[in-house]
Amino acid sequence: MLYSIKKPYFYRFSLALILGIFLISGLWFEMRSHEIRGLVIEDIEKYKSNIDNIIEEKSPPTKVYLRKAIGNLEVIGMSTTDTYEVYFHIPVPFNEQIPILIEVESPELIDYRFLHLNPPNVIIAARMNQAPSAPLNWTAWVFVRENTYSDLPSFVPLPSLEQLPDSVKKWLVATDCAQINDVLVQQTADSICDTTTNLMKLADDICDFCQQIPGQLPHYPYAFDAVYTLKWGNSCTGHAHAGAALFRANGIPARTLLNIPTWFGFCDMHWIIDYYVPAYGWVRMETVLGQNPCLPETEVVTFACNPEDEFPMFFPCAIDGCWHTSDPVFGMWQPDWGGAHRAYNILTIPGSTEEIEYAHSLTDSVFNYYSNYFGINLTLAQQSLLETALDYQASALVNIQAGNLGGYIEDMQQALNNYKNIDPAPITTIFFDDFESGQNGWTHGGDQDEWELGVPTYGPTQTHSGENCWGVDLDNTYENYADCWLLSPPIDLNNYTCAYLSFWVWNWVEDVYGYVYDALWIEITTDGMTFYPLCSKMGGVNDDPEIPDVGGWSMVALDLTKYVDNTVQIRFHFNSDGHDVQAGSYIDDVHVYGRYGTTGIITHDEQIPTKTISLNNMPNPFSRLTSINYGLNMDSRVVLKVYSCTGQLITTLVNDDQKCGMHNIPWDGYNSKGEKVSSGIYFLNMEVFSQDGKTKEITKKIIKIN
Hints:
By secondary structure, this protein is an alpha+beta fold. It contains nine helices and 33 strands.
């Protein structure tokens, strides 16, 4: 077998070395514990006094902030299939902030739904028509509860491992973005900590240190991990990873946060961190500007990274993010999110603490239902409830834009009541295999095929769960010129309203900044012969001999709703070129899940007869473009107009004879004179004059937001 290994073997952590590191870490934490127990009495009393003051002087929220965030993405190039999916980040429910409504627009948009990752993260999966290129824009309105951090203590002892809650300990691990076991990271962390026993002083010192890191990328291949940053400098991404690594190396849980700042113009995305303070909670830190704490109203969070997110598959240069498409032909960096995002301060609303806390909790509940039910197939009765709930959400948004928090609460309560009445079937497991009970119908083949099931002894030091996983080679590197696959048994998606796929992957392949040479990607088939792509090519650990490698398991989630009403098979496809080889691709815990119920997706342009006359639009509310869909139960003359809330005619969209079936027309928010209309409530009015002489009229409320 012809192969070479890019890194010397000592770069690959053996099980013995990993155990040794854990032992050393345990000793280090024990030493920290002795330091804390050895604090002078005055320090202990000072800490207790601070905690007492926090309890007595807790500063409750007295303000609500309304924020608007936008993303102007673009898909460049032609897909290999008639339709494809685009995955991208939006604001997520995270501590003080909760999204109110999300709006997605594109001339090629078919539909979209929310894809829930590990909490609190949610992304959008948008289904698009094939086109040479396509703009894809989203707008989010976000409720932010005030947090001034005025109750943040000035002194907190550095904790031991035992003093941390189990729920936060996972943010102490080494990842490919934050290599805390590297000598440079350890030395820098020790130097910053020095002899301090105060976590709050350590936080200030880490913040000051990160602010001084040069904003440059002089070394190629570019990477955005902690070690690259400490050696040569970096963008905000590297600043955040360095900050998280320095906290973790000192025994303090820390995580990276993707966000859109309100204080900047258009940007790719911005990275900051938050760190855990015992007996207090998480505190945000701006590692570029040197702000500690960083106030929540200044930045809209779009991704709160779990440790598994710091082994990036779609950006194997230490960019923790989930932008990608279902078609590998687009390559990395699609959709194009460069300079695409911006956030705005809209207004500040005063209120009582009770009112603000209730509004925050209510918004969180509504978003949970909204993000789980929107975009899935529902019965006509359920769809009617969903549309009513969306109307109340839109009305609530108008109220909060006007500074009316009471009206906002009333409308959101009505939205919640309607969502609760939808009551679709719960999410259930359709298929799951953790590979602990044999091959179970999985097959494999192809050129240089070495897919095998068992205990890995070369790449990962352990599986994601249990003892077994599938890998391209469990005890050595993969082969050059491989083109091999692993195929699941049949999975029945018939009679499901939505379906999703998740799996865990450990990936160490040949890649470099911007390109994956030896790639893993996922495909699906409904007939066992024709396969359709489901995701972009996945890379893994950054290939640079000057950067330490840390492999780990990462979770990938994909939308399969397009394939409901079919029996499918999932295929993991691996391909390598004739150059460097690495440990390869490993798969564990494959899970297909969804909701059982009425199915049958209808695209906007399918001329399918309908038993009733219908009128809907998406999104609602909208800012730039809304897609109006209407159905006719027979050939008819249609007159579709837009009126203001005072009854003034705004524009006529349709006045024509049309065939039986589903129809679609966009409205861009302009009147018949070509003038952009103002924000507010408008009404779609459709009159249908059927060939049998009957006339039917439907009116629907629509909300325009500028």
